[in-house]
Amino acid sequence: MITAREGLKTLNLELEDRVTERTQKLSESEERFNLVAKATNDTIWDWDLVSNTMWRSENFTTMFGYTRNDETNKISFWFDKVHPEDRDRVQDSVYDAINDHAKNWSAEYRFLKSDGNYAYILDRGSILEDEFRTPYRLVGSIIDITSQKAIEIKLIKAQSATEELMRKKDEFMSIASHELKTPVTSLKGSLQILQRIAMKLDPKDQMVSFINKAERQTQKMTALLNDLLDVTKIQEGKLQLNYSTFDACQMVKESIDEVGLQNNSHHLIFEDERVLEITADRPRLEQVVNNFLTNAIKYSPKAKEVLITCRIDKEQFIAEVRDYGIGIPQNKKEFLFDRFYRVQESSSHFSGLGLGLYISAEIVRRHNGSIGVKDNDSPGSTFWFRVPVKPK
Ligand code: ADP
Question: Does ligand 1 come within 6 angstroms of the Cβ of 346?
């Protein structure tokens, strides 16, 4: 028979055991917490929302140079050291997270070190709440991201410097091409008059061939200027389309004839005689075909043939130009339609501005069509575009 006194004693002993066990567990977990805090390069912090004080791991001193004491443990000390431009944002975000019962909080900001320099830090914490959903503690860590941030800032600066350069380049191109247009047009007119006079005097005179040469050069200059003016138009969103209904097959044929007249190095093969009626901007689509054809000739100096096909499929007009030239490396294909892009491996051997495909892509895009280059089995490349047969 156990007396009441003995029973109470046993109960007390059991309770004592349990308390010791819990205290042991607590000190074990605190020890583990301290070990983790020491092992990591981050600063670990523990903000007691009830006493409004902050415990920080030893790394706080290594990272920022402050000793850990009652003064530096104050929350006001933390906010005071946040860069004035970041302070409100950091303060608001952490209190908003606490009030909104968020689970986590994080912020990137500048923190003043004891040596007077600012460190860029990534500060992240978890918010702990009791059973009544009252937040009572935040535990988190700080990573020093100063060097990453420095690289990021350098990159942003370099990017904005590049954008500024591109803007100046566009501005220069726009002014230069506008200014050059008038003298080149007048030169072209004068050469044509000279040509007629020289032909009347003596068609076999050497002067006629020189005038013809000069005329061809002004034609090239006009084409370059037109490209530059088109780029300006695209940049300013002023590339207009004038729709009409025409035979697209005939349009391709005319383009082949025109390009063929200026180049007799290649046989341009197009055997399609169908009538393919579409409604689009004829001169602009012809410009795309011209660009494909001149590129096909230019980039296949050792080949003799260029194949051209066109068809209508699912309410889309499709034209393809295939050459047997140098081809395009697979990893360069995605950049071909970018402004000023030229494939580096070949750019030094062929003249060009890297604008033709950019302008072509914009023309096709304006028609709600698509443009691309195929993956060929054999050497060379096949450029294609498709546009709806009628605008929607
Ligand atoms: P450009 O020919 O004046 O350089 P484009 O915009 O017409 O400008 O073409 C961009 C680049 O695409 C060219 O510099 C060239 O590297 C590549 N390219 C275009 N067409 C072909 C082609 N048919 N074969 C091989 N490379 C091509």
Answer: yes
Contact 287, 357 (CB under 8 A): no
- Number of neighbours of residue 210 by Cβ within 10 angstroms: 12
Cβ–Cβ < 8 Å for 350, 299: yes
Q: 237: CA distance to ligand 1 center in Å? A: 24
Domain 151-235, CATH 1.10.287.130 — does that match? yes
User: pLDDT for 79-93, tens place per residue?
Assistant: 999 999 999 999 999
Q: Which CATH superfamily is domain 38-144 in?
A: PAS domain (3.30.450.20)
Q: Which CATH class is domain 244-388?
A: alpha beta
Domain extent listing, the chain: 38-144, 151-235, 244-388
Digit-coded pLDDT (tens) for 329-363: 989 999 999 988 999 877 788 888 899 999 999 99
**Given the CA of residue 296, which atom of ligand 1 is nearest to it?**
23
368 residue type, one letter: N
Query: Ligand 1 within 6 A of 352 CB?
Result: yes
pTM score, two decimals? 0.67
The residue contributing the CA closest to ligand 1 atom 11 is 342
Protein residue closest via CA to atom 8 of ligand 1: 354
Q: Which residue in the block uniquely carries the two structure tokens 């892009």?
A: 341
